[in-house]
Every structure is written in C-alpha cells, then in structure tokens.
Write a structure and sequence with these properties.
The protein has 249 residues and is α/β, with parallel strands linked by helices. The chain has five helices and 15 strands. It has one domain (2-248): Carbon-nitrogen hydrolase (Nitrilase/N-carbamoyl-D-aminoacid amidohydrolase).
C-alpha cells in the first residue's frame, strides 16, 4: 500500500481548511497513493475551551455536508481517507476519527477515548468519549485508530495488539506547552516515547500531527511519521512542514 500522510496548515476558517483537505486528497491520488491520512481536528484545530455554547459550533455532523464532500472526493479519486474531526452529535461533542473507503459506502467512525482533548472541568454530558477500539476492514487491509493521547493508555494499546490490524492510525494535535517548535527536542525527548508505544502495540503505525497557529487550541507543530511494528522509524516529515509524507508499506 502506498500511503500519504498529509499535514495541512489548519487556519481559523473551517471552509478554507475543508478545501485544503479536498485538494490534498486529489494531490495524494495524483501521486499514486491508495490511502491518505490527515491529523486530529484537521478542519478546526482543537479550538474548544470547555464552553459548550461556543464549542458545539466547531463540531460537524457525521454524516453531514463536510463528510459527504470528503467521501465524494475520495470516491472520485479512488483513494481511502482517514481524518480527525470534532464531531457534533446533537448536544454532544466528540474528538473523532473517520475512515472512508472508495469502494464502500459505509463511513467508519472512531471516537477518542482518552479525555485529554478537553479540560478536567468540562461537562461530560457534552464532551463525550468513545468506549472501544475497533478494527475496520477495507480492501487495502485491516485498520484501527487511536487518537493522540489514546496511544498512551495501556488498555487501549493492549486492545490494538489483540486486534492485530495491519495498520494503526494515530491522528494527533500535539504541541509543547511553551509553544516551541523544536525538532531536536522532539527527537531527543518525545519521539522515543511514541516509538516505544508503537512497539508495544506491535503494529505498523502512521502518525500525522496537526499544524496549527498558536491561537487554535494552543497550536501544534505538525510532523508525520511511519513507524514499523518493531519501533523503527521508516519515514518522517519534519516539524512545521506543511506537506505530504509518502510511504510504501
């Protein structure tokens, strides 16, 4: 499988971000990719501030206009698509990941289980969590999601190892608390922890991190990584680089 990890530059305009995602799907397909993945909250960034009246407006319906536009682009270009979004379901908000297959009308949805995407005092009647890790089967193979902090939950990693997917997908929205975009710091202090978690999962893993302005949920510094089941970094896209990482798996 030829995969493309797309790090789009997320702005304050959801419409502009959606158009960037749609264009990225097309570029990935033109480059021969069979699968393209975008980061966590790729249409908005993690802009939520635990005020439901405000935050619910950032969520999209699943299915809804945005998902239909992405599904149509994926089908037209005959490419599978994974993307992280803020999902609104009635009066609840979820940090979700979506998987589209060009040859299957079903939309697969995973909801982040770990709570780190919202504050500790956020009302849980609004800010929801998923309940289980699932394996999704496409023509290309078997996939599972963990979103950002889910990768550091032992029970969830153990569940992935039990499911034995061909690929683990990890969309992220990761930044340093001081706003630094420090490649050396990432490689020396942070990346080894991610590598170890992938090794524990025992599954080839694709990670795409949101690239967003600091005003959007604290910002995030981008980057993308393909990591083998033994923890070997197979390919990477440097921090702060909007663009696409291609990897043949």
């Amino acid at each position: 499988m030829r995969a493309a990890l797309m790090v789009n530059r997320t702005t304050a305009s959801r419409e502009n971000n959606l158009q960037g995602v749609l264009a990225g799907i097309g570029r990935a397909a033109e480059s021969g990719a069979e699968f393209v993945m975008f980061p966590e909250a790729a249409l908005t960034g993690l802009v939520n501030n635990d005020r439901p009246a405000r935050d619910l407006g950032f969520g999209i319906a699943v299915p809804g206009p945005e998902t239909r536009a992405m599904a149509a682009m994926a089908q037209t270009n005959k490419i599978a698509l994974a993307i992280g979004v803020l999902e609104r379901a009635g009066s609840r908000l979820f940090d979700s990941a979506l998987l589209f297959a060009p040859d299957n009308p079903e939309l697969f949805v995973y909801r982040r289980i770990s709570p780190g995407w919202h504050g500790r005092k956020a009302p849980l009647r609004v800010y929801g969590s998923g309940t289980e890790v699932n394996r999704f089967e496409l023509r290309l193979g078997k996939f599972a999601f963990l979103v950002c902090g889910d990768l550091f939950e032992d029970k969830l990693v153990a569940r992935v190892r039990e499911l034995r997917p061909d690929w683990l997908l990890v969309p992220m929205h990761r930044c340093f608390s001081d706003g630094a975009h420090d490649q050396r710091r990432w490689e020396a202090k942070e990346l080894p922890a991610y590598v170890e978690r992938v090794r524990l999962a025992g599954t080839a893993t694709l990670i795409a991190n949101c690239l967003a302005e600091r005003s959007l949920g604290g910002g995030s510094f981008g980057g993308a990584w393909a990591i083998g089941p033994d923890g070997e970094v197979l390919a990477d896209l440097p921090l702060v680089s909007a663009g696409m990482l291609f990897v043949d798996l």
